[in-house]
Design a protein that fits this description.
The complex is a heterodimer. Chain A is mainly beta. In chain A, 12% of the residues lie in helices and 42% in strands. Chain A is globular and about 80 Å long. By secondary structure, chain B is mainly beta. Chain B is globular, with a radius of gyration of 25 Å. The N and C termini of chain B lie far apart (53 Å). Classes of the chains: A mainly beta, B mainly beta. At the A-B interface, helix 1, strand 3, helix 2, strand 11 and strand 13 of A face helix 1, strand 24, helix 6, strand 25 and strand 26 of B.
C-alpha cells in the first residue's frame, strides 16, 4: 500500500511538470516621443531605457539622453532633418526640433530615427478637425483654483488629449483625465474639469491646483483614434497603476528596437488668468 | 470614469479596508455568537468525515472552532483549512481550490446560486453562521442541481432542524448589532430570522477621520437579513429562505473634491418542496432566485460617472431520488436563466441610453442529469453521473459531462478511490485585479467567447477511525478555453465591447493534499498540507509560453487546534503557511510622456514572500442556566504581527528625487491583516 501511494504521489508531482518560459532579462532599447502639430514644427525626444533599481543622478542623465541620432521627418512632399536643441527647463533637456517643415491638417508624416546601425520608423497623420474650446476655472477654496475646458462637440469622431501649463513653463503637461472621446459625450458641448499632474521634477508638496495670479494655458489636441489609444495605453502603463497588476510591455507605434509614440495633432490653446 | 479616479478608488478601497483593521487593533471590539464553541468537542465525535469522496463537509460547530477575524465566525474563511484549499488573501472572499480562483467555484446558499459572497471586502462574513447547519464542498461527481463552474460547488445550508424550542440571540459591539430569533414548534414547523447591521458611520469613521488624513468623508455600513422557514405536512415538507444584504460605502479623494461611492448587495431566496413518495423514494423540487447588483460612482469635480453591474439568476430544478443503504439513483433536470448587464453612465445620460451599455446579455441553460451510486461487490463502490446540457447563444450548445469514481473499501476504515470528471463553465467571472473588489466583470460565453472546460483525474486514500481521520488526495486538472482579462482597464472603459479585453487560453493544475483530523474528549486538531501547482498558456500572454498562474502557491499548510481546558474555558489556535503569490517583476524602466513606465519580465516569474499567520483565541462561558447563556471570547489575529504582502508594484520615488536630486524606482507592497484583537460577547435566551 505504501509503495502504491508513493508511486501515485511522486508520479503526479514529477511527471506533471510544466516547462515555463525562460526568465526575461533587461533589453536595452530606444524610447521615442515625437509630435507634429498642425502649423508647428515637429518635436522629437529620444532616450534610452534603463534597468529597474538603477539610480539616475545628473551624470547618468547625460548618458540617458540620445544626442547623436539623425532624425528625419517627411510628408506632403517635404522632408527635414531635425536639429538637436537644449532647454534646461524641461526634461529631457536635449531634444530634436524642426526648422522649416510645419505640420498640415489631413497630411501623413513619416519619422525616421537613425543611430549607428539602428533604424526606427513610424508614421502618423494630423486630423483635419481643430477643436473649438473655451477655458474656465472654479475656486475649490480660497487657495485652490480648478481649471476646466468647454469643448464644442461638433465632430463625433474627434479624440481629445488635454493639457495645461503655467505661463512660465515650457512644456504642456497632460492632465487628469488625460483624454476624452467625443463619442462618449452627450450633447453638443461638454465641459471637463482638469486636474494638474505632477512632473517627475515636481516635489511631494507641489500643488495639483492653481492659485490667484497664475496665468495658465489650456491645450486640447485632436488626435487620430490610433494615437489616442496609444496614449491611453501609456496611462494604463503608468507605474502608479501597477497596483492593478497590469504587466504587459508598452510598445507604441515605433518600428525597430524602440518603444514610443509618434503622433500628429490639431490643437487649440486658450489662456486663462486666475483672478 | 477617468483612469486616475479608478485607480484612486481602488487604492482608497484598500485604504479603507486596512483602516478598519487598524481600528480593530486599537479598539478591538466586535461581538459574535461564540457560544457553540463550548459544545464542539463532545458533539464532534461523530463518524462524519470532513474529507469524503467527492465531498468535503464542515459543520457550523467546526466552523466556530478556529479563531475568528473580528470575532465573527466565517464559513467561507473556514474552508481554507480543508484539503485542497489555498489562501487567496485577506481582504477578499477568495477561496482558491486546487489551483483555480474564486470565480471558478460556485457558491450556493440552500442550493441557490449566490453571486459575489462578500461583505466588507471579505472581512465581514456574508453567510451568518448563526443560522447555518453545515457547509459542503462538491467536486468530481457532483449532485445534479449544480452546474456551470469548473472547480467545485460550495453549498452552505441553513439549520433546518425542527424540535420544540424558542431561542433568542443577540450580539453587539461598537461596530455592529445582530439580533435573531428561532421558533420551533411540535417538530413540524420552524421559523428563524436574523438581522445584522453595522453602525460604523456613527462610531468608527468619525474617530478614524480624526486620525487618518486620507479618511475624511469615509462612510461604510452594511446590513444583512436572513429568514428561514420550514413546515412538515405528513410526507411533504416545504422549506423557504430569504437572504438580503447590502453594503454602502462612500469616500472622498483629491482633497474632498471627488466623491466616490459604491454599494452592492445580494438578494437570494428559494423554496424547496420535498415529498416522500414511498419508502426510499423522494421527490425534491426547488425554485431559486438570486440577484446581485453594484453601483460604483465617481463624482469628479461635479461630473458624475457611474458603473452599474447586475446579475440575476432564476433556477428551477426537480430531482427524483431513490436512496437505500449503499445504493442511490438521482435523476432530474435543472433550468437556469442568467441575466447580466454592465452600464457606464455619464452625467446627464439616462442609464439605458444604448451608447453607454457596456454589456447586456441573458443566457438559458437546461440540463438533464442522472447520478447513481451502487456497490459492484462488497469491496467496490461505484459512483457516477451523466449530465446532458444545452446553453443558449454559444456556438456548440450541447454538452455531455460524465463523471465516475470507483472506491475500493479495504475494510471498515481504509479505502481508496479514483475519479474522472468533466465540467463546463459558460459564465466567466473575470476579475479586474487579484484584489476582490466587487467590480469584477461577469461575461457569458457566446459566439465570441467560448465555454471554459475542465477534465480532472483524481485519486486518494481515506482512513476513518473513531478518533482520527486522515486522507491523501492527488489530482491533475486539464483546462481549456480559460479566460483572462488583458489588464487594460482604460481600454475597457473606453470600449463598448468588454469581450475585446478578454484573452483565451489553456491551463493545468495538479497537486497532492494531505489531511489529518484528530478528536479527543478535550481536543480537536486538524492538519492540512496541500502541494498545488497551477499554470496557464495563452497565445496573447507571455509570448504564448507557459507561465505560473497568479494563484500558483505550491505549499499550503494549515493547522487548527481547539483545546477544552475546563468545562468553561477553551483555547483555540490556527496557523497558516502559504507560498507567496506569483507576480510579474519589472526589469527595466524609461521616461515617457512625463511619467516613468515599466518594462516587465516574464509573466508571473517572481514570487512574493510566503504568507504565514498565527491566530489564537480563548472562549469563556460566563454563565449558563436553563434560560440564559453568556459567552466572552477573545481572539487575536496575526499574533506575531507578520506583514504578509498581498501585492507588489514599482513606484517612482519622488522623495528620493527631492532629497538627492536623482531618479529612483522603489518596490512597494501592500500588506494584509495586522495584529488584530477582538473581544466578543454573546447572549442566548431560551
Amino acid at each position: 500500500m505504501k509503495k502504491l501511494l508513493l508511486t501515485i504521489i511522486t508520479g503526479t508531482v514529477f511527471s506533471a511538470c510544466i516547462k515555463e518560459a525562460a526568465q526575461k532579462e533587461f533589453d536595452p532599447k530606444f524610447v521615442v516621443e515625437g509630435v507634429i502639430e498642425h502649423g508647428a514644427v515637429p518635436v522629437v525626444k529620444v532616450m534610452h531605457n534603463i534597468p529597474t533599481n538603477f539610480v539616475i543622478d545628473e551624470e547618468q542623465l547625460e548618458a540617458l539622453i540620445v544626442r547623436w541620432a539623425t532624425i528625419k521627418v517627411s510628408g506632403g512632399g517635404e522632408e527635414e532633418i531635425l536639429t538637436l536643441t537644449r532647454n534646461d527647463k524641461v526634461f529631457p533637456y536635449l531634444f530634436y526640433v524642426g526648422n522649416s517643415l510645419k505640420g498640415k491638417a489631413g497630411q501623413k508624416y513619416k519619422l525616421e530615427v537613425k543611430y549607428n546601425n539602428d533604424v526606427l520608423l513610424s508614421e502618423t497623420e494630423i486630423p483635419l478637425y481643430k477643436p473649438s474650446i473655451k477655458g474656465a476655472y472654479e475656486w475649490l477654496d480660497p487657495e485652490k483654483a480648478q481649471p476646466a475646458v468647454n469643448v464644442d462637440n461638433a465632430n463625433p469622431e474627434a479624440n481629445y488629449l488635454l493639457f495645461t501649463k503655467l505661463d512660465a513653463q515650457h512644456d504642456f503637461y497632460a492632465t487628469t483625465p488625460r483624454g476624452i472621446k467625443a463619442i462618449d459625450q452627450a450633447g453638443k458641448q461638454f465641459t471637463v474639469s482638469m486636474m494638474r499632474t505632477r512632473s517627475i521634477l515636481d516635489s511631494m508638496n507641489s500643488s495639483r491646483y492653481y492659485t490667484k495670479g497664475d496665468t495658465i494655458a489650456i491645450k486640447v489636441s485632436n488626435v487620430s483614434a490610433t494615437s489616442y489609444s496609444l496614449w491611453s495605453a501609456v496611462s494604463q502603463q503608468g507605474l502608479a497603476l501597477s497596483f492593478l497588476n497590469y504587466s504587459s510591455d508598452f510598445s507604441g507605434n515605433i518600428e525597430g528596437n524602440g518603444a514610443g509614440i509618434w503622433y500628429g495633432a490639431n490643437s487649440s490653446v486658450d489662456k486663462l488668468i486666475i483672478e | 470614469m477617468s483612469l486616475t479616479s479608478s485607480t484612486e478608488f481602488l487604492k482608497t478601497g484598500l485604504t479603507f479596508t486596512l483602516s478598519l483593521l487598524f481600528y480593530n487593533l486599537l479598539y478591538g471590539q466586535s461581538v459574535a455568537d461564540t457560544i457553540k464553541n463550548m459544545d464542539t468537542v463532545t458533539v464532534s465525535r461523530q463518524k462524519q468525515l470532513i474529507n469524503g469522496v467527492n465531498t468535503l463537509t464542515l459543520s457550523a460547530k467546526q466552523i466556530e472552532l478556529a479563531p475568528k477575524v473580528m470575532g465573527i465566525a466565517d464559513p467561507l474563511k473556514s474552508i481554507r483549512f480543508l484539503p485542497g484549499f489555498g489562501n487567496g488573501g485577506d481582504a477578499n472572499s477568495g477561496v482558491q481550490y486546487r489551483g483555480l480562483p474564486s470565480g471558478s467555484n460556485g457558491y450556493f446558499y440552500n442550493g441557490v446560486l449566490v453571486h459575489n459572497p462578500s461583505h466588507l471586502f471579505g472581512l465581514f462574513p456574508l453567510f451568518n453562521n448563526n443560522v447555518v447547519e453545515h457547509l459542503k464542498m462538491y467536486t468530481g461527481v457532483v449532485p445534479g442541481k449544480y452546474f456551470g463552474k469548473l472547480s467545485g460547488y460550495i453549498d452552505i445550508n441553513s439549520n433546518w432542524q425542527v424540535r420544540d424550542t424558542t431561542l433568542i440571540k443577540a450580539e453587539a459591539s461598537l461596530a455592529h448589532l445582530g439580533v435573531g430569533a428561532r421558533i420551533e414548534r411540535d417538530s413540524i414547523q420552524m421559523m428563524e430570522i436574523f438581522w445584522r447591521n453595522t453602525f460604523m458611520n456613527k462610531t468608527l469613521w468619525p474617530v478614524l477621520s480624526k486620525t487618518g488624513k486620507d479618511l475624511e468623508g469615509m462612510n461604510y455600513d452594511l446590513f444583512d437579513f436572513n429568514m428561514n422557514a420550514k413546515r412538515v405536512f405528513n410526507k411533504n415538507e416545504i422549506k423557504a429562505f430569504l437572504y438580503l444584504g447590502r453594503d454602502k460605502a462612500m469616500f472622498d479623494l483629491y482633497e474632498q473634491r471627488a466623491k466616490n461611492s459604491m454599494d452592492w448587495g445580494n438578494l437570494v431566496m428559494g423554496i424547496t418542496h420535498t415529498a416522500d413518495l414511498r419508502q426510499n423514494l423522494q421527490w425534491e423540487n426547488n425554485i431559486g432566485y438570486s440577484r446581485y447588483n453594484t453601483r460604483v460612482a465617481f463624482d469628479l469635480y461635479g461630473e458624475e460617472f457611474a458603473l452599474f453591474n447586475h446579475q440575476r439568476t432564476l433556477s428551477i430544478n426537480s430531482t427524483l431520488a431513490y436512496r437505500k443503504s449503499r445504493r442511490s439513483v438521482e435523476t432530474g433536470f435543472l433550468y437556469m436563466m442568467d441575466d447580466l448587464g454592465t452600464t457606464l453612465q455619464n452625467e446627464g445620460q439616462p442609464a439605458q441610453s444604448g451608447g453607454n451599455v457596456r454589456y447586456k446579455s441573458n443566457q438559458h441553460l437546461f440540463k438533464y442529469f442522472l447520478n447513481a451510486r451502487s456497490p459492484l461487490s462488497k469491496k467496490i463502490q461505484l459512483e457516477g453521473s451523466l449530465n446532458l446540457s444545452t446553453v443558449s447563444s454559444v456556438e456548440s450548445p450541447f454538452f455531455i459531462n460524465p463523471a465516475l469514481s470507483v472506491s475500493y473499501l479495504m475494510d471498515a476504515r481504509n479505502s481508496f478511490f479514483c475519479s474522472l470528471s468533466m465540467a463546463y463553465q459558460p459564465i466567466h467571472q473575470v476579475g479586474l485585479t487579484n484584489i476582490n473588489l466587487p467590480v469584477d466583470y461577469v461575461i457569458h460565453a457566446n459566439r465570441n467567447l467560448s465555454v471554459s472546460k475542465i477534465r480532472e483525474a483524481s485519486g486518494g486514500y481515506r482512513y476513518a477511525g473513531a478518533r482520527i481521520e486522515y486522507s491523501i488526495d492527488v489530482y491533475y486538472r486539464w483546462l481549456s478555453d480559460l479566460k483572462e482579462f488583458n489588464g487594460n482597464i482604460i481600454s475597457l472603459n473606453e470600449s463598448n465591447d468588454i469581450a475585446s479585453g478578454i484573452e483565451n487560453g489553456d491551463g493545468v493544475t495538479y497537486g497532492a493534499d494531505f489531511f489529518v483530523r484528530l478528536i479527543t474528549t478535550r481536543n480537536y486538531f486538524t492538519v492540512n498540507y496541500s502541494y498545488s501547482r497551477s499554470f496557464r498558456k495563452f497565445d496573447a500572454i507571455n509570448n504564448g509560453q507557459w507561465y505560473k498562474y497568479i494563484y500558483d502557491r505550491p505549499h499550503n499548510l494549515s493547522i487548527v487546534n481547539s483545546y477544552k481546558l475546563t468545562p468553561k474555558i477553551s483555547f483555540s489556535v490556527s496557523f497558516m503557511y502559504n507560498s507567496g503569490s506569483a507576480y510579474t517583476p519589472t526589469v527595466g524602466m524609461y521616461y515617457f510622456g512625463n511619467s516613468v513606465l515599466a518594462e516587465y519580465g516574464a509573466k508571473n516569474s517572481a514570487r512574493m514572500d510566503a504568507y504565514h499567520r498565527l491566530d489564537a483565541g480563548v472562549n469563556w462561558l460566563l454563565k449558563k442556566t436553563s434560560k440564559c447563556r453568556q459567552t466572552l471570547g477573545l481572539s487575536i489575529i496575526n499574533v506575531y504581527d507578520r506583514s504578509n504582502p498581498i501585492y507588489i508594484y514599482q513606484s517612482y520615488d519622488r522623495n528620493y528625487f527631492q532629497n538627492n536630486n536623482a531618479f529612483k524606482m522603489i518596490q512597494k507592497d501592500g500588506a494584509s491583516l495586522p495584529l488584530l484583537p477582538a473581544l466578543t460577547y454573546s447572549l442566548e435566551l431560551l
